[in-house]
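subagent[fold] <- orchestrator: predict structure for attached chain, return tokens only, no commentary.
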Amino acid sequence: MATVTRENIGLLTDKITVNVSKGDYLPSFEKTLKQYGKQANIPGFRKGMVPAGLIKKMYGNSVFTEEVLKTVEKELTTYMSSEKLEIFAQPLPLAENDARQIDINNPADYSFAFEIGLKPAFNLADLATAKVTRLVVEVTPEMIDEEVDRHRNRNGKMVDQETVSNDDNVLNLHFTETNAAGEPVEGGIRKDNSLLVKYFNEATRPKWIGLKKGDFLVLQPSAAFDEKEREWVLGDLGIDKHDADGADKYFKVEITKVGFIEKPELNEEFFKTVYPAKEITTEAGFRDAVKEDIQAYWGSQSRNQLQHGLYHILLDQTKIEFPEDFLKRWMQTSGEEPKSHAEVEQEFPQFVNQLKWTLILDKVTRENNIEVSPEDIQAFAKQQLFGYMGMPAGAEEQPWVADYIQRMMKDRKFVEDTANRIQTEKVFAWAETQIHPTDKPVSKDEFTHLVEEHQHHHH
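subagent[fold] -> orchestrator:
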């Protein structure tokens, strides 16, 4: 009869030894060998009539070894299940094991040993006492003015003009990287873009006035744009915003088209175009709706930042011990290609951080009965589809929408990825109920600066 013993050999690391006797594996070996005999197709013999001795000679060694190892694996799995062992990955066979000891001509008692890494017990970081700041962006009249103007530009009518006449002109531009003299650089950047004159800084805007198609300026992004506009212009040119030399590059910026947006009047027709689901009759009501949108956007950004902070509190302040030696050995042998010791050492910090976060998610999910239902996944698929199609959240559902959702529910990867995403969102929603944040009013520029500073600190 098989026996299983267990002993501790290190931090959260145990050795399990499985001992099997002849009576544990011989019956299954003989049964499997008979099945081989019934199914074997060997020239010169009718199917099922091959002599047992020939079958044993042809298949005996491999079947014997396989049945011994299957018996060992079965006993190991049964033991871990009955003992309710929570382990990392899979048991690792120890070097002392030697399958060559298995001999069909000398059936005997066999012993195989395995190493297991045990999941640790731990306490979560105390979120109730954590110092958490929630950034609250104050919506100013200027922000509302900008958004109203953006809506009017988006819904306006573009007309062509001969020459640039004011800051609201739209310029189709071709950027060509040059030297200081305006001579093209071989292999340099070439890019088309479309910019309002007012996106340039105050010193540069007047230089465009009076120019027409085919005219150009030679300029440097560092000198032609203020910080915010410079960042996204550089990004569009494929230049890292932190690359000081990149911002100092020279460009010949040629006008390929001059346009002007005729903005719609602030009337009920325009309000209905922007907010088809709302009954807005006055400019004041329209500005209130715009303000709600801006508040919702920055509220979402603030929540993202809050959750980013919660992630680091849970990860950095939750103390968890790991069977590091076991995990490193597992990393070396678990992939398609073995890893070197140096590779494992390099990858281990990130690996163990991911493992730690997984344990934290599992603990919060288990202790707070957090579940992801099929309805949650279906709702996400619908939300995602409406986002792709630019449809409002409350839009009437068409039959093709239901067909799309059902199709996505059959996509295993989509379902798994979405379930993980929703689970994480629910964990963060729980975490938010545990904290007592201090609200800090900030401007949108201060918010952006603080977020960048925080992210830089954690990288």
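orchestrator: received. Logging for downstream: The chain has three domains: 3-118, 157-262, 269-457. The chain is about 50% helix and 15% strand.
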